[in-house]
Amino acid sequence: VVLYPLVSKSLRNIAAGKDPLEGQRHCCSIAQLHEHYSLGYPDLDELQKNPQPLIFDIEVLKVEAPGSYQQDPWAMTDEEKLQAVPLIHKEGNELYRQGKVQEAAAKYYDAIACLKNLQMKEQPGSPDWIELDQKITPLLLNYCQCKLQCEEYYEVLDHCSSILNKYEDNIKAYFKRGKAHAAVWNVAEAQADFAKVLALDPSLRPIVSKELRSLEARLREKDAEDKIRFKGIFSQ
């Protein structure tokens, strides 16, 4: 069980809804063991330093018939991942329409994880890699829309920027990033993104104008609040 700390970390990632291979690179198990000087869990770090016999208690929570449950992405074969993505995407869209934004984001994340796992096996820039990336992009934009509503703006900034680094003409990525910039008071960046949206599609002017008016109104409110907050501060 010398490699169990790495196994345990993967299982904990799965329990948290993360990729079980997160943070690992392609190399042999011994190299992985030496490279990970810290696994992020003190008990696993201690076990890695001082291997010892382990006793496992396994509790059966429930028994499900084959085919009666949806597998987690990490447990699927490559073919199953490809088949599952459209279904997971559809489930996410339905949850979003019902106003269940957090649940929808989790579905989009699962679909992205399936495709990312497949993409890792392809040569970056190859036709198959690009095809998978083009399937990931709309899912990632849906995920960003959920994160906008959850007010997780910096995550939106990161993801939209990653999309725009590859697809400079993606209007939705510019628009969502513009809204995120506006939310965190990056005024110049928001204005630049909204200007890019108009340059790519002038028909969106009414929507962009609405966002800019909203930003200007928030700026006026903020200026008024600041004046009240700092009134007389320099005369004391």
Cα end-to-end separation: 68 Å
Unreliable stretches, pLDDT < 50, 5 or more residues?
Answer: none
Number of helices: 10
Alpha-beta classification: mainly alpha
User: Approximately what portion of the residues adopt beta-strand conformation?
Assistant: under 5%
Instruction: Find the count of extended strands (DSSP E, 2+ residues).
Output: 0
* Nearest-integer average pLDDT: 87
What fraction, in percent, of the residue positions are helical?
55-70%
Radius of gyration, in angstroms, nearest whole number = 23 Å
Shape assignment: globular
Element order: H for helix, E for strand: HHHHHHHHHH
Largest sheet: none
GO molecular function: peptidyl-prolyl cis-trans isomerase activity
Main location: cytoplasm
Domain AIP/AIPL N-terminal FKBP-type PPIase: 4-60
Organism: Thalassarche chlororhynchos
At a glance:
The chain is built from ten helices and no strands.
Structure write-up:
Residues 4-60 form the AIP/AIPL N-terminal FKBP-type PPIase domain. It is found in: Cytoplasm. GO terms for molecular function: peptidyl-prolyl cis-trans isomerase activity. Pfam families: PPIase_AIP. One of its GO terms (cellular component) is cytoplasm. The model has no long low-confidence stretch (mean pLDDT 87). It contains ten helices and no strands. The protein has 236 residues and is mainly alpha-helical. It is globular, with a radius of gyration of 23 Å. Helix content is 66%, strand content 0%. Among the domains are: 4-49, no CATH class; 173-231, no CATH class. Helix 1 (4-15) packs antiparallel against helix 3 (42-49) and helix 9 packs antiparallel against helix 10.
